[in-house]
Amino acid sequence: MPARSRHPAAPHALVAGAGIFGVTAALELRRRGWRVQLVDRWGSGGAAPHARASTTDVSKVIRMDYGADRWLTDLAAEAMAGWEGWNRRFSLPLFHRAGFLLLSESPFEAGGFEEASFRTLSELGRPVERVGPDALRRRFPAWNAERYADGYLNPEAGWAESGAVLATLLEWAEASGVEPIGGAVEGVEPFGHGARVVVCADEERRAIEVDAAVVAAGAWSNRLLPQLARQVEARAMPVVHLRPSDPDPFLPQRFPVWGADIGRTGWYGFPLHPEGFVKIGHHGAGWSDDPDRADALPEGFESRLRAFLADALPGLAQAEIVHRRVCFYADARDGDFWIDRLPDAPGIVVATGGSGHGFKFGPILGAMIANAVEGIEDRRLHRFRWRPGVAPGKEEARAEGLEP
Ligand SMILES: Cc1cc2nc3c(=O)[nH]c(=O)nc-3n(C[C@H](O)[C@H](O)[C@H](O)COP(=O)(O)OP(=O)(O)OC[C@H]3O[C@@H](n4cnc5c(N)ncnc54)[C@H](O)[C@@H]3O)c2cc1C
To answer: Which atom of ligand 1 is nearest to the CA of 50?
Structure first.
């Protein structure tokens, strides 16, 4: 027997996946008066985020530097204002305005990612500062200033404690009446104007009929919606934490969030974490793997990392790697999110495709997803519409892959 809503008057939504897309959607739908069930495969301990969710981990970059893409720059600026609002609501700030330092090995050239970001933000009156080799040497001494001919600092950007943010949003969701279910969504299909969702929880399988189902299952979304498979792919990306023997040069005031010629090299990272390590990731083509199983970093990754560090950040060249992680992008071919009703099933909404940059939009994702659910016109959704056959390559340049 399908389960029936306990709130017959309220429309009923089930959200599959409690990463940043799912939890913000659940919060906003609940705020708008929906009965909301939020399903994730978290453990029996309760509403902890799933350890393999992209949204977990200690940090994510919060920036509005998007090259010449004025539209995404504006959208990220809107989200940035939302981070300030969240910081006021969090018991302790979880977004840290540590700045974002973008370095380039060659002098800025028109059209390059760093040059275009700097120009776009300058035209918008944002307080970005050019950082040449002298300023790099003086203000940010961990860097080998011989290697970087140009760069800029965006002092408004920074990083957020992603896992802690998600845990807090889950608490807010529960407090607002969202009903968490620890279990796996096994299938979603159209049912009348809504959807029927098969959920396996506590070793029991049941079908739940809802007015709307939101598939926000990150890198697993295309398992529930196979029609997404050629458009949004699970791509594995490596992350490491290194413990420097001398942490001083890596303190946030001397070592902001950074991208080191990122479109060409893929390397980016964070200031010294309060627990004494520096997190570094590689944003590239990544590799294809199973998001439920992959744990090993590709062979050759660590030697490439060490070569980069020896040249760019000598103080980290010998630092011990204290943590290794494989994290999955729900990688859209063009880098843009997918937030839309399915064309032939308006009771099913997809909310995924965060690729390497979805987290920072957290403060505005919920409203966009809820607008898609309620069929409310939202100019921001045009770019995130259902778009099979989209050509790859619209996203900013990516470094080469790290096939295992
Ligand atoms: C290495 C790495 C670095 C990144 N860096 C940044 C950054 O610096 N800045 C930034 O803005 N973004 C960054 N991102 C991207 C950002 O993290 C993602 O876009 C965002 O977190 C995706 O959120 P999500 O809700 O779509 O997916 P997830 O957080 O992965 O959540 C999906 C959830 O769905 C659940 N789920 C899956 N299948 C099922 C099922 N069948 N039933 C029930 N539950 C299910 C999973 O358990 C999971 O909890 C990064 C991503 C990675 C991997």
So the answer is: 49
Ligand 1 centroid–CA 306 distance in Å is 28
Which three-class secondary structure state does DSSP give residue 337? coil
Looking at the CA of residue 184, tell me the nearest atom of ligand 1: 42
Q: Which helix (H) or strand (E) holds 241?
A: strand 232-243
Q: What is the share, in percent, of the chain residues with pLDDT greater than 70?
A: 93
Three-state DSSP state, 69 = coil
Task: State the closest ligand 1 atom to the C-alpha of 61, by its place in the atom list counted from 1.
Answer: 8
Report whether residue 21 contacts ligand 1, using a CB cutoff of 6 Å: yes
Going from the Cα of 226 to the center of ligand 1, the distance in angstroms, rounded, reads 18
The finding on whether 356 has its CB within 6 A of some atom of ligand 1 is yes
Backbone angles phi, psi at 152, to 5 degrees: -150, 160
Cα distance between residue 36 and residue 28, in whole Å: 10
Whether pTM exceeds 0.85: yes
With contact defined as beta carbons under 8 Å apart, do 209 and 347 qualify? no
Which residue ranges of the chain lie beneath pLDDT 50? 1-6, 394-395, 403-404
At 238-270, the pLDDT tens digits run 999 999 999 999 999 999 999 999 999 999 999
Q: What is the spatial distance between Cα 60 and Cα 270, in angstroms, rounded to a whole number?
A: 9
Q: Where are the domains of the chain?
A: 97-156+233-329
Gap from CA of 109 to ligand 1 centroid (Å):
34
Q: How far is the CA of 124 from the centre of ligand 1 (A)?
A: 30
DSSP 203-237: TEEEEEEESEEEE--GGGHHHH-GGGTTTEEEEEE
The 8-class DSSP code of residue 2 comes to: -
60 lines ligand 1 (CB under 6 A): yes
329 C-alpha vs ligand 1 centroid, how far in Å?
7
Q: For residue 251, give Cα distances in angstroms to 97, 310, 327.
A: 13, 19, 25
Q: Which CATH class is domain 97-156+233-329?
A: alpha beta
Which of 223, 222, 193, 225 shows the shortest CA–CA distance to 209?
193
Query: What is the residue with the minimal CA distance to atom 31 of ligand 1?
Result: 19
